[in-house]
Q: What sequence folds into this?
């Protein structure tokens, strides 16, 4: 009998591996060899096939050069969608309950990748013995529990044929092989049973985390590669060590320090970043730490803010006896309303447009409440682009806003354009490889409008509609 998880039988059911196992496994012994498994598949076994006398499971190699924790979680999750992953909590607990039973034995193949996928059932009544052999891993997709684009093909046979006898001997030899281990050595040189190791990994899936911990996790997953690359960069470590000695950096919460490192990386890689933390999460101090880093590196720093926020920034300048006085923070403050005519020059500091605001070899422009500059057709926006951003050689732009999008996605598009001096194709030659900001945001806005018109719409549906490049930004 062939099982492909797609062909319908005469009773209008699909011929799935899961359906076959559920129908014919009773109180005998089960032996399985699989490359991967999923938490939900084990939970299903616990729910509907747990009357067995013994359950032996041989898995593919759990330890390799990849990051083990990330890899095993991916395998356990079986590439589930967001909604399904959120339901893993209950399934994970059932999977752990199943594995903790004495009758369940687990081993792993240490030195080779396991391509074999085999399911065998031994019943007290030999007439009920059977085997399934083919392509299906012990996962949701492999068993046919959920629909998948995978092409699976398995052959099911009874205990009366020679294949069953040969498979029984093959499994016995594999189970006893020196390369099939019941205990493994972890990277830290500690030893643990395979079963306990898997239980520990699955338990991560139903740990209860606070919103604060989840925020950390999201930040880490978003910027993991950047953070790791920076931590291995000796030159950056030397530069960041100077920042770490400052009062402004020391006073930050851990999540803010993570934000500082991420912002610095984005500014170094793409010449710009938008800090869009919600009100009350300390955007000002996070920005001050980033500004200090670039000040140490020799950048001139110009801050644009609404006039009403002048005191909020001026209090930290050198000479104002703030708690960060020892850091000697230096930056020039101007208002959004100064972005016209010669207003940039109307201050006691005497700075002139051509000699101070233009011609800088290294300039960091910081824009607080950057959503006020969301209209690329406004005179202030054009003044900033034409008289400052395009009149300096190396310019980096840090923007702060709790509400970067006010009305339409085009609002944040125009803030991204400031990073590339107002050029629509400014990100084309970067690692983001975005040929046109206008095009990608026009598509995203169109998708948003289409999503809004749907009944019973879900945010997850809208996210799936967005262009991939949108997430790169």
A:
């Amino acid at each position: 009998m062939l099982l492909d998880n797609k062909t319908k039988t005469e009773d209008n059911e699909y011929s799935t591996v899961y359906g076959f196992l559920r129908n014919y496994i009773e109180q005998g012994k089960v032996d399985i060899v699989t490359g991967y498994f999923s938490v939900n598949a084990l939970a299903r076994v616990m729910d509907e096939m747990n009357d067995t006398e013994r359950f032996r499971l041989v898995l593919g190699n759990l330890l390799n050069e990849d990051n083990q924790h990330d890899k095993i979680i991916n395998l356990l999750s079986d590439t589930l969608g967001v909604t399904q992953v959120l339901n893993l909590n209950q399934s994970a607990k059932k999977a752990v309950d199943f594995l903790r039973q004495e009758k369940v034995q687990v081993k792993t193949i240490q030195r080779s990748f396991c391509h074999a996928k085999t399911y065998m059932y031994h019943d007290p009544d030999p007439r009920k013995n059977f085997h399934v052999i083919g392509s299906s891993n012990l996962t949701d997709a492999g068993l046919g529990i959920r629909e998948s684009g995978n092409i699976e093909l398995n052959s099911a046979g009874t205990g009366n044929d020679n294949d069953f006898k040969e498979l029984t001997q093959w499994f016995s030899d594999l189970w006893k092989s020196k390369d099939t281990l019941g205990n493994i050595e972890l990277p830290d040189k500690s030893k643990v049973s395979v079963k306990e190791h898997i239980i520990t990994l699955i338990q991560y899936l139903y740990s209860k985390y606070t919103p604060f911990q989840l925020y950390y996790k999201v930040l880490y997953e978003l910027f993991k590669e950047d953070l790791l690359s920076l931590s291995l960069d000796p030159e950056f470590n030397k530069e960041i060590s100077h920042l770490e000695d400052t009062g402004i950096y020391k006073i930050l919460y851990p999540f803010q320090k993570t934000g500082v490192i991420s912002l610095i990386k984005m500014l170094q890689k793409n010449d710009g970043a938008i800090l869009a933390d919600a009100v009350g999460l300390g955007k000002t101090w996070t920005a001050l730490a980033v500004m200090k880093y670039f000040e140490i590196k020799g950048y001139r720093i110009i801050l644009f803010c609404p006039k009403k926020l002048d005191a909020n920034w001026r209090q930290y300048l050198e000479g104002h006896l703030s708690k960060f006085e020892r850091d000697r923070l230096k930056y020039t403050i101007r208002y959004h309303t100064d972005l016209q005519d010669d207003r940039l020059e109307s201050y006691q500091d005497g700075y002139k447009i051509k000699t101070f605001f233009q011609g800088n070899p290294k300039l960091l422009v910081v824009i607080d409440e950057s959503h006020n500059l969301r209209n690329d057709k406004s005179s202030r926006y054009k003044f900033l682009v034409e008289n400052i951003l395009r009149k300096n050689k190396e310019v980096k732009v840090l923007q702060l806003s709790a509400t970067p999008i006010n009305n339409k996605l085009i609002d944040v598009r125009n803030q991204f354009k400031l990073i590339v001096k107002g050029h629509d194709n400014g990100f084309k030659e970067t690692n983001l490889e975005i040929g046109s900001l206008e095009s990608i945001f026009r598509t995203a806005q169109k998708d948003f409008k289409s999503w809004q018109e749907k009944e019973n719409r879900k945010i997850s549906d809208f996210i799936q509609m967005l262009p991939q490049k949108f997430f790169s930004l």
Remarks:
- The CA atoms of residues 25 and 396 lie 65 Å apart.
- Residues 64-75, 78-83 have pLDDT under 50 and may be disordered.
- The two ends are 51 Å apart (CA to CA).
